[in-house]
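## retry 2 of 3
previous attempt timed out at serialization; input unchanged, resubmitting
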Amino acid sequence: MNARTRPSRTALAAVAAAAAVAGLAAASVPAAAAHSAAPRFLAPKELPPHPTSAWYAGPVTSGQPDPLPMCVGEALPPISQHRQYWTEFDTGALQVTVVERSVTRAKQLAALWQKKLSECAAELMEKDPEVTATARDYGRIDVEEGARVYGIHTRHTWGASDISLFSVGRDDRTVTFVRWAQMGTFEHAQVADFKRTTATAVNKLH
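## retry succeeded, writing output
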């Protein structure tokens, strides 16, 4: 005669616990995958080439850069990540990346940064009467959800002359901001090289 054994309450509890653990493990897989898919930052060699120096880079750092960058500094959220770059001469760069909670919020942030850049020259002169600032819009780059490049030249009454190139780009809910700067005027702006750098930065946001 075949006998059927009824599982004890202890055995049932053990099975339930094992199932719960398995469920948690399965749920953790997408989270781990999402974490490993964090946006990558530019490598030094991907910046506009300097004629007499290599580029160097610091680590990717959480939070806002210090000091805050010109134009968009006050619009950088605390959840920003950033990386600083420099050469052996007076040329430097910065990349800031933000992963927003939704595509809508990412679109809003990108629009805010672009607005700040379009108003930056006027704002700089309003804040400091010893500064003359001129802006140029170098247009859109067709990469992922799009990017835009701007240039700003500043001249101080005491003689300093600096040129900066900026870009804002987005892929899904991730937004990035890149700045390149050195002494000079618009004639010294490496616009074509900076556009390639921007396209690379946005493509690396996947």
